[in-house]
Design a protein that fits this description.
Protein name: MoaD/ThiS family protein
Strand order of the largest sheet: 2-1-7-4-5
InterPro entries: Beta-grasp_dom_sf, Mopterin_synth/thiamin_S_b, ThiS/MoaD-like
Distance between the termini: 35 Å
Helix content: 10-25%
Shape: globular
CATH superfamily: Beta-grasp domain
Number of strands: 7
Number of helices: 1
Oligomer: single chain
CATH topology: Ubiquitin-like (UB roll)
CATH architecture: Roll
Length: 64
């Protein structure tokens, strides 16, 4: 799968099926600080990801 990280770096992963939560653990990213999209749609942490998915991990900014 193609993964775009919050810093803009792109990585290709071949890991088989895994959840969003497992993907975030792989990159040591806290789920409370990001949103994840699969094929341009925001998805929850329990979504299963496959090798042919395009995934983007986006940093959430807090403040006023």
């Amino acid at each position: 799968m193609k993964v775009i990280l919050p810093n803009g770096d792109t990585q290709e992963l071949v890991m088989g099926s895994l959840t969003v939560e497992e993907l975030l653990q792989h990159f040591d990213i806290s789920p409370g600080e990001v949103l994840v999209s699969k094929n341009k749609r925001i998805i929850p942490e329990d979504t299963i990801l496959e090798n042919d998915d395009d995934v983007r991990i986006m940093q959430v900014v807090f403040g006023g």
